[in-house]
Amino acid sequence: VSRWRARAVRLVEWLRRDRVDADTDAEIQAHVDHLTDEFVRRGLDRDAARRAALLEFGGVERAREAVRDRRGLRPLDTLVRDVRHAARLLAATPAFSAAAILTLAIGIGANAAIFSLVDGVLLRPLPYHDPAALVAVRELLPPSASEPGADRRIVVAPANLADYRKARAASGLAGYMPVTRSFSGAATPERLVGEAVTPEYFAVLGVAPLHGRTLQSSDAASDARVVVVSHAFWRERFGGRADAIGATLRLDDEAFEIAGVMPATFQGVSQARGSAPVIFWQPLAFPPDVLANRKDHEVAVVARLAPGATVEQLASELGATAAGFGPDAGGIGVTVDGLREDIARDVKPLLLLLLAAVGLVLLLACVNVASLLIVRSIGRRREIAIRLALGATRLRIAAQLLTQSVVLAGCGAMAGLALAVLLKRSLLAVTPADIPRLDAVAMDGRVLLFTIAITAVTAVVFGILPAIQVTRSGPRDALATTGRVVAGTWASRARTGLMIAEIALSTVLLIGAALMIRSLTALNAVPLGFDASGVLTAIVRLPDSRYATPVARLQFFDAAAQSLARLPGAEAVAFGNRLPLRGGWTSGFLLEPEGGLPGAADASAGFQSVSPEYFDLYRIRLLRGRSIAPADRDGAPAVALVNEEFARQFLGGGDPIGRRLRRGPKAPSIEIVGVVSDIRRYSRTMPIDPEVYLPAAQTSLYPLRLEQVAVRFSGDALARANELRAAIWSVDPDQPVASVSTLDEVLALQQGTRRFQTFLFNVFAALALVLAVVGIYGVVAYAVGQRRPEIALRMALGASGTAVLRWLLTHWLGIVSVGAAGGIVAALLLGRLVQGLLFEISPADPLAFVAATTVFGVAALAACFVAVRAATKIDPASVLK
Amino acid sequence: MSDGRTDVLQGTLALMILTTLDTLGPQHGYGIARRIEQVSGDILRLNQGTLYPALVKLEQQGWIRARWGVSENNRRARFYSLTPRGRRQLTAETRRWERVSTVVARFLRPREQAQ
What we know:
Distance between the termini of chain A: 71 Å
Distance between the termini of chain B: 24 Å
Oligomer: heterodimer
Helix content of chain B: 55-70%
Number of strands of chain A: 22
Mean pLDDT of chain A: 86
Low-confidence stretches of chain B: none
Number of helices of chain B: 4
Radius of gyration of chain A: 38 Å
Largest interface: A-B, 29 and 22 residues
Strand order of the largest sheet of chain B: 2-5-4
């Protein structure tokens, strides 16, 4: 105990060391004065008494040193001195310091920025009570024979939820579904994003309302029109007033009473998954037919583990429950994951890879700075040798050198953090919105801690080699070299080794970037099958309260289409239930026999209800038969078009024209009258599905809910968004016009993650290339400078400048090749890490490897050439003199 | 040592300081040094400078505390006094020292007799 006490006292003493030192001096002075008084009393005169007193005391300075050694903390004194010394040294060589600090700032800043992203998305706890106990529950479809690797996870069937609630390993299970409703209380009608949630939802998340109450079982049971609203919405619409509780909110033309307001920190679970902010929560109750069908999967489930229970316990308990459902449930299983892991599942590999890549950039920065430090320390060898000869320990000198590294890294870190703060905004701007939890990305204490940690590691990584190198040479060697300083072979070998490592690292990053570019190019080369340029689309979800029948909805869209067609520059207008790149609708159907293939009975295909202009607008080719005509209305014979894939899958490639299909045994029979070309309806990465196109005007045939319009404009379609809204509002001013965007935007959004990873990899690779070129130049220029006498000698003996140039270049390019070869091998070994992020490109894609190596080779050649050429321009006579 | 006096043994100095403060009450460094030399007669030679690191150590361990005051010579000096912890330590140290010296004495006596 007293030892710790003594340490604490010493720390306090150290902190007030000026005062303590003054006290010691005064005390010792007082002692000597007392002794002097004593000798004066014994009869000596004052001067003699003082001399006698000092003699008796036995060395004032020694006593003072001894006290100082005991007091305070000697190592801290040393540290402060070393830091000051380091700062002075750095200030004395501004060019070196600036180069090193800038290099480190880039490395550390990029890491801090990427870490803030990783932290916000992967690591930060969710804004709920005890978030570690929250889990996502999903059902698992039985393994598919045709696609063994496919994702079998699926949302839960509400019919099964009641059974799952019996699990003892969970203290509660809540279901939630995203919903959108139109809200006409604002200047222009809007779609509000909400969640329909079962009564347990708020209790499971463990968050209490800020005002009012959350939803109760009685709300769902009585189908009450109540909502809980978000803090942001409450502030915006009700100015944060308490009388918002009980106020009425009109959603989809229905009056809802506001029952409660959630706190500002709360967000819906679907919002954490990367969708738009959730504005309201409404009760979720399931109709009897849903509750009777164990195959009707439609609700996402979040659960809270019972105290002490584990994810595995809950999974096995729920698995056993699901196994007891029998054939009704279609052989489903259950999977349970931590909610945070579940949310971040899709982006985790990407983020970790980015972290690894940016870590490589930092490593490169370290290698460069280490290389610079080695050169610098060669210049300091004499000084250090003298200190070693005077008795300084190697450890002491190594510690001092490491202190310099830490000071350097610290400066780099501060500059890097400033850089990261600037980078964060740009980073978030290029980060695709479908990456979850971007709102949790922040530059705060967590990022600061991470930065301090990597800075410490960085300082050791780049400082250790130079420190070892300086202290391993004996004082005699260093002092013996007079005049010209000759680098030890150890130093030049270390630097060559660092250069090879640097080349390998940047080759890996360049290859990674090349693979990403190749992948994006391959993706963009996939034909969509339709012309997406210049098409502006919008979604208008008509509420049943005003548009109860399919005919009413058809009339609305007919009127809207006419209004849109009158817009200047509008070339074509079409509408349908789902348009390309904006979702789809799949249904089972029966192909009527006539040689129909067996097994086609439970076939399913995409069913889209489209207006006659659809195919022209999207430039989808009619291959056979006829297209949908305006005359295909209610009352006319039921007709449909199919795509090529439909004919391939269900008719063995035979001619579909004249064949008939129906959606169910009692549904109307539909004649296929034409075949159109295939399109990739969902995205470039999704397979082509068989499709059936029905005329939108045959509403009795198959009442698919019309909700989307598309307009092809000549010129910039995006600039016409407001005109499009106005045209639709001229038909009904109360309907929100949602998701107004061009197909180019939709495509860009779909490729957001790929663009993002490609962009970042390119940035990292560019940084790596610059660092490597600077590093190569530095090493080669210095080494060639060291060999000036040898070069001069060769030239004096008759070698031409070109010959010397060739000789030196061959040597250094040999070293570059070794590094590049190492990088290629490393990239091949690391390939499977990026495999999942590449589209139809092998991680060993030869083109990417050749391209990256070529780029690197040219840059390295240039760096070597510039560094070597200067050496061949020397005048042999002046060097050899 | 050349002049026949013995250097203060490591560790015993602390005990002497504590005893001095126990006997004389609060004392400054000079007073403690004089007292140790007086008590030991001419047997012990105290290098007075070495007193101060020892005082610092005792202070850090919380056995003594220091306060600025005015000496009998009318000079400012730091006065050291025992803390309650220091008093306990003194008791413990005294007991330990007595035990050790008894044992050492037992070892030494037969040799003296043999002479």
